[in-house]
TrEMBL record:
InterPro entries: FtsQ_DivIB, POTRA_FtsQ_type. Residues 34-99 form the POTRA domain. PANTHER family: CELL DIVISION PROTEIN DIVIB (PTHR37820), CELL DIVISION PROTEIN FTSQ (PTHR37820:SF1). This is Cell division protein ftsQ. It comes from Borrelia crocidurae DOU.
Amino acid sequence: MGIYRKILIIYIYVIISFILLEIIFIIFISPYFLIRYISFNDDIHISKEDILSISGIKPNTYYYNADISIYEKNIMKDLRVKNVKIKLKFPNMISINIERRVPVATAYENINGSFVYYFIASDGVILEKSKDLIYDLPIISGLNLTGSEVGDFLEDGMLTIIKNLNYVKINQNTLYNLISEINFLKLNFYDYKIILYIKNIYNKILIRMDMDLISVMHKVFMISNLLKERFDIVDLRSGDIILLGEN
């Protein structure tokens, strides 16, 4: 009986060891838990190769080794990314959802007769700096951008205007597309006058419709705080519409 009991114990030990080895193999060695599928949300306009390179997700990464917090931090270092959310889905999938920064306005400075353009996102960060005007966006003039570089943020006063401009873009995209330029005319240390130039639409609409359009524009711009108080000048002589407001 003693011999049979020893054989039974050895047999059970071997079976349990084999099962444990199988479990270890499945969890730590089997390709079943390798990250094989990585999904992305639509309309990110950033190549998947760039995202994977920036994220730090390496080939042959196992599910239990994936660190989504590090991946998110790495991706957030890219200025094109406003926000990112990564989910790990059992047993071998990663889902990446990116909110992309997009420029909503262009600022510029004149350096010895040469223009340098700054493309600014809705949160006030300078996304790009170029000698070429590569986007058709509302121009913001009158800013002091000396020394500003990609990654810098606009000062708080200007940031408010950018956010309000983004409000118009989201809620009244047609009017946003009519904005040609927003000029900040410094009056003193604290105050400035905002001059809002609308794109030349004189030949595209009837004159009797101009005032209706201006009325709608004024309401939207007042709601979004792009203009303060009532505007006092409407100039249609050159085909350009100019709205003035003071801050």
